[in-house]
Design a protein that fits this description.
- The structure is a single chain.
- This protein is an alpha/beta fold.
- 38% of the residues lie in helices and 17% in strands.
- The protein is built from nine helices and eleven strands.
- Strands 1-11-8-7-5-6 form a six-stranded parallel sheet. The protein has a three-stranded parallel sheet with strand order 3-2-4, sandwiched between helices.
- Helix 6 packs across helix 9.
- The longest helix is centred in the N-terminal third of the chain and has 21 residues.
- It is globular.
- The mean pLDDT is 97.
Amino acid sequence: MDTVIMKGKPVADVYREAIAATIARAKLRGVLVTLAIIVVGNDPASHVYKGRLVKLIESLGGAAKLVELPEEATQEEVIAAIKKLNRNRYVQGILPMMPMPKHINDDAVGAAISPNKDVDCLVPLNSGELFLGRSKWAPCTPRSCMAILAHYGIELSGKHAVVIGRSNVVGKPVANLLLAQNATVTICHSRTQNLADILKTADVIVAAVGKPCFVKPEMVKEGVVIVDVGINSVEGKLVGDVDPAVAEKASAFTPVPGGVGVVSNMMVMECLTRHL
């Protein structure tokens, strides 16, 4: 069996070309596509992510508007900044870096964003539209998973897909996207009993559990398709939620690093340009 390594870069490159063309057409109409990024405090991961997004949007021909607030900023001040951006006609998308400092409610911040400027499905209205099957605009990581599966021609209709993890940012929305492609979906989580027995029936596994090398070869069947969302640091190396040895049994899998994460930021940019 020839195993397909579902690398993210070829997928991201296809989207990059289309998004850059959309931004270029907007520029001809006098519109500079702009993503507003809100960072509260000094969380290192948020500032690294912010830097990557700025570099990406500028490489596509757009612009970034940074709103940086101190760690002690109140929830009211953050929401006021978002409302100001909602009214700014030169800003097409708003992305607050999560998680916020502990004294700020992430859900309240997300809910303050105008639905039309929500690029990562943080607004309850947009989450509801996704749940009802009326929208494809899920958070960027679930859409990255689906973009990779589509690019590599993975058939989902009628297949049994098992999602490990039930978070609002990955597990639940990716389950809805898989359902929309007519997969039969099982969601597993920390209270699931006989997890290995369930995984052995899966044609497709989306692992988003946040535990390094959690899925072992003996837990999956031959020919399974693996989408590994996990990014864990172990002894200075990045590893996924799936043991690399599982690749020997898989018909296709996403590598870590170099898989889902490579596509996720491009999904933010696709959502940013959806109304252009």
